[in-house]
Design goal:
Shape: globular
Number of domains: 1
Structural class: alpha/beta
Distance between the termini: 48 Å
Helix content: 40-55%
Strand order of the largest sheet: 1-7-6-2-5-3-4
Radius of gyration: 23 Å
Number of strands: 7
Strand content: 5-15%
CATH class: Alpha Beta
CATH topology: Glycerol-3-phosphate (1)-acyltransferase
Length: 280
């Protein structure tokens, strides 16, 4: 019988209990703060602390590029690819903005986490029966408070790291709200915890912040307009992810090849030493 690898034991018996504790403590603090802080700023501070603790405990080292391209205090719609559940703590810990997410309605039923999201002003969408008018109304209410939104436009996590096509629905709402869209590329979180695997590993992650795409000047945008914007943003994000992931893969392959060459050289040297000793 083959035993699970070290990082499985570390995940199950150390990380999961630690993250559960962070979630309960900071989630309770977030929920209590909502009684006096209706705008959810304290709840967001709890979310950022929760994210930082998770990354630190797991051993995730994040490098942020392009943060100078966005202006603090401005309201944006951040659109990201989705490789892992670790994308959320990476983005929340790295972006100095009051962020709210658009989440599937089923998350609202989760104890502590769902309560925090509801009390903190995050948006829930019923994918089976989406209420577009209601979502836009709540969206505009958040914008009036100076809050930014984060959208994972693929709709689900990627199985292979490739960026799937972006869904147009959120982009139509973005155009109707008249907000600039900021493409985000997250690279490396699949190495921490890919979809479908109960095991985390320390890793280096990069978050690339691209130039904002200005708000649409179209008075009444259509689905076709939204699809065009979605394809434009997808092109920016997918190109960055592909370039960086291929670079990392090539780097790892080169390291492995260098290691094999060193092993073969060592074996040849050992063989020569053995031959010289036999000759004596």
């Amino acid at each position: 019988m083959r035993l699970p690898p070290y990082h499985w034991w570390r995940t199950v018996f150390y990380l999961i209990p630690a993250i559960s504790l962070y979630t309960i403590v900071l989630g309770a603090l977030s929920i209590l703060s909502s009684l006096v802080d209706r705008r959810g700023h304290v709840a967001h501070a709890c979310a950022r602390a929760w994210s930082w603790l998770i990354l630190k405990t797991t051993g995730v080292r994040v490098t942020v590029e392009g943060l100078e391209r966005v202006t603090p205090g401005t309201t944006y719609i951040f659109v990201s690819n989705h490789q892992s559940i670790y994308d959320i703590p990476v983005i929340f810990a790295s972006l100095p903005f009051q962020l709210r997410i658009i989440a599937k309605a089923s998350l609202a039923r989760f104890p502590v986490l769902g309560w925090h999201l509801k009390r903190g002003g995050h948006l829930f969408v019923d994918r089976q029966h989406p209420d577009r008018a209601g979502i836009l109304e709540r969206w505009r209410a958040l914008v009036s408070d100076g809050l930014s939104l984060i959208i994972f436009a693929e709709g689900t996590r990627s199985w292979d790291g490739r960026v799937a096509r972006f869904k147009a629905g959120s982009f139509l709402l973005a155009m109707e709200a008249g907000l600039p869209v900021v493409p985000l590329a997250v690279i490396g979180t699949r190495a921490v915890m890919p979809k479908g695997r109960l095991r985390t590993e320390p890793a280096d992650v990069t978050l690339v912040v691209h130039d904002p795409i200005p708000a649409s000047a179209i008075a009444e945008p259509t689905v076709r307009d939204a699809k065009a914007l979605a394809d434009r943003v997808h092109g920016v994000v997918a190109a960055t992810v592909l370039e960086r992931q291929e670079g990392r893969t090539a780097g790892r392959q080169e390291e492995r090849q260098e290691g094999r060459r060193a092993e073969r050289q060592e074996e040849r040297q050992e063989g020569r030493r053995a031959e010289r000793q036999e000759g004596r």
